[in-house]
Amino acid sequence: MTQEIAPRNAYFAKACPQRVQLDVLRPCEPRPDSPFLQKLVEAGHEHEASTFAGLLEVVEGAVVIDAEDPDAREWHTLRALAGGAALVAGGRLPVDHDGHRVGEPDLLVRDGEGYLPVDVKSHKLLDAAKNPGEGSAVVSDIAQPFFESAVTDRGSVLRQQHLVKDLLQLAHYRRLLECAGLPSSARNVGGIYGTEGVVVWYDLDQPLLGPPEHLESAPAGPLSAMDRYDLEFAHRLEVHLAAVAYVGGGPDPLLAEPVACEQCSMCGWQDWCARQLEEGADLSLIPGVGVTRRRLYKAHGIEDLRGLAALDWTTADLSRGKVDLAGLLAQANGLPASTRLVDVVPGRRKQLETLVTHGFVSVGDLVAVDGSTLELCAAGATNLATQIDLARARTGPRPAYRRRGVERVEVPRADVEVDVDMENANDGCYLWGALVTDRRPATPATHYVSFACWDPDLEAGELHAFAAFWAWFTEERAQVHASGATFRAYCYSKGAEEGQMRPIAEHLGLGHEVDEFLASDEWVDLLEVVRRNLVTGRGMGLKETAPLAGFAWRSDDVGGTLAMVNHDLAVEGADPGAQAEARQWILEYNEDDVRATAALREWLDGRANELPSIACAGP
Questions:
Q1: Is 487 inside any structural domain?
Q2: Residue 531, beta-bridge partner list
Q3: Would you say 245 and 238 are in contact if contact means Cβ atoms under 8 Å apart?
Q4: Is pLDDT of 561 > 80?
Q5: Which among 341, 368, 402 is the end of a domain?
Q6: 188, 205 Cβ separation under 8 angstroms
Q7: 249-288 tens-digit pLDDT
Q8: Among 532, 548, 559, residue whose Cα is nearest residue 597
Q9: Shared-domain flag, residues 447 and 508
Q10: Which among 106, 409, 472, 561 could bridge 36 via Cys, Cβ 3.0 to 4.6 Å?
């Protein structure tokens, strides 16, 4: 009996299969959309609306579909396309009932006798080419959003961050155009209009993407967007149908299961899945274990983190050190236990040094090599030794452990320490906060300072905020140096702060000055200190590590997303009281962030040294 399937939109092919399944099973009430997710949706709609309005002014023959009813939108869209409209914005293509697809591409642009899909996204699409003049991005101006008007931007390359999701969405629209008999016959390309203000074009037949990880028998990549999309969409349909049959009492099993992934934080089912993952000590709970690695472990009988923790670290580390254990065991087979390994493989100096470091000197020592661990390494489980330690840390009784070989946690300190954190929204940085700790008195003195600009023009505001911060910071540093004291500034994950500092500084003519400081030993990334010294088996973000020092934020939302939501209210709020409250919330949140790094540093330099070594955390 054929099951009726409601047509699916472009998100379906990109969704976590477990989410597709739970949308059918509904084991509990899902969590409602967070304010941040609502903000993202609103920002996307605003970006689309402003784009559509701009297109009407600059593109001759542009048609904006203004109808709420889906059937009406489809009718108006087809009418505009049949009339040869140069561009249709906000349309809806006919439902593909056989393919179970429905879609509403933001833009359809004429190309010959057919149309190409273009989607509007409120994120960046391009990165600067590493070598000037060697960029390869194909772009067209929004005033001429047609592929025939595109040129190669030699200064830019495609950004990878959103590439897969964007291309799958364009492929979805291409399939709908094909079903409707409306695709361009000249080429199979699609465009994304991002925050750079240009349409970036992608060849949907070019093999740019890796294979889908959720399919066990997926072909090896690279794949075209069309091929990857077809596989992903078909797989989600299978998951959906299996779940429908399961609810109806069918005998076949479900096809998806909880796996921690990047979509979890925005998913309404995250609480339900988190309970299942924790109760089952799921392998995906530790960093570095995604769907593919998890499948490899399970294929070799490693069902959960306890099983991973039980593997032999020494065998895995020898394999990581490029020691040919399988070959060595074969050569040593039948030899007396007292035979020295140097006599078995005399020409392998580096391997022999590694073996000796791990206590392997004679043939008799090879009995300690674990066959299961060695087999897994041979099957492609790279960096298995690290993941064994992560599993032991995650399942162990302590919240954290010292890394192997770390006798004492080394933390760069100074007489005067400044913790730095910024707040940004919509690709702009509006606040720099700093906690100054003077360690010279018997009782260290601390004070928080902030440099914020609540200007709705974020591009101008970020220049003002950083200029004020940098002037203060430079003076503070100079005064400390003049007094003969030492100075250091700290951040947590320098990519965030440096990613904002450098372009702003360059714009202000401070590029050389800022680069010189960032390259000095007075600038310390505390995340690197944590990574060098500790193993937790969890994420290494500040919100995960600062609680180890007993620090707690005043806000229940410690992910930073509420700060972005409050920024809108702080800048554009109509109620002065609510606006002031939002600004105060952001300042307190920023202050907590810098106090968190200060507290973590003190703990790292003190009580963290009481943590046991992960080498002592056996399976």
A1: yes
A2: none
A3: no
A4: no
A5: 402
A6: yes
A7: 888 899 999 999 989 988 999 999 999 999 999 999 999 9
A8: 548
A9: yes
A10: 561
Give the pLDDT score at 559: 62
Whole-number pLDDT of residue 56: 74
Length of the chain: 619
If asked whether residues 503 and 362 sit together in one domain, one would say: no
Residue 126 host element (H or E):
strand 126-128
Residues 88 and 113 in one domain: yes
Strands 189-193 and 126-128: unpaired
Whether residues 319 and 434 fall in one domain: no
Question: How many domains does the structure of the chain reveal?
Answer: 3
Contact status, residue 362 vs residue 337, Cβ threshold 8 Å = yes
CB 206 within 8 A of CB 283: no
* Residue 421 placed within a domain: yes
Q: Measuring CA to CA, how many Å separate 330 from each of 333, 366, 372, 561? A: 5, 11, 16, 56
Q: How far is CA 184 from CA 110, 428, 506, 582, in A?
A: 8, 38, 43, 49
Q: Give the pLDDT band (50/70/90) at residue 442.
A: very high
* CA dist., res. 613 & res. 618, Å (int): 10
Pairing between β-strand 416-425 and β-strand 487-491 as defined by DSSP bridges: parallel
Radius of gyration, alpha carbons of the chain: 28
Q: Which class for 203: exposed (0-12), middle (13-18), buried (19 or more C-beta within 10 A)?
A: middle
Domain holding 522: CATH number? 3.30.420
> d(Cα 533, Cα 546) in Å, to the nearest integer?
15
Mark which of 178, 208, 238 sits at the end of a domain: 208
Q: How far is CA 311 from CA 300, 304, 307, in A?
A: 12, 12, 7
Pair (67, 164) in one structural domain:
yes
- 209 forms beta bridges with 223
Exposure on the CB side of residue 315, measured as CA atoms within 13 A:
23
Structure tokens at 114: 């057919």
- Who wins on pLDDT, 355 or 34? 355
Report yes or no on 13 lying in a domain: no
The answer to whether residue 251 sits within a structural domain is no
Report phi then psi at 144, rounded to 5: -135, 70
Could you read off the pLDDT of 15-56 as tens digits, one per residue? 999 999 999 999 999 988 777 667 667 766 777 777 777 777
Angle at 361 between CA 360 and CA 362, to 5 degrees: 105
- What's at 28, amino acid-wise? C
Residue at 557: amino acid letter = D
Residue type, 224: S
Tell me if residue 205 falls in helix, strand or coil: coil
Q: Whole-angstrom Cα distance, residue 220 to residue 212? A: 9
Are 464 and 601 members of one domain? yes
Tell me, what amino acid is at 516? E
Q: Which residues contact 150 (CB under 8 A, 6 or more apart)?
A: 138, 139, 140, 199, 201
- The position carrying tokens 């409120």 is 122
CA distance 262 to 191: 25
Q: In the chain, how many H helices and how many E strands?
A: 21, 17
Q: Over 60: is that where the pLDDT of 1 sits?
A: no
470 & 544 share domain: yes
Interval 151-180: pLDDT, tens: 999 999 999 989 999 999 999 999 999 999
Dist CA 202 CA 200 (whole Å): 7
Strand partners, 201: 138, 191
Same domain, 434 and 369: no
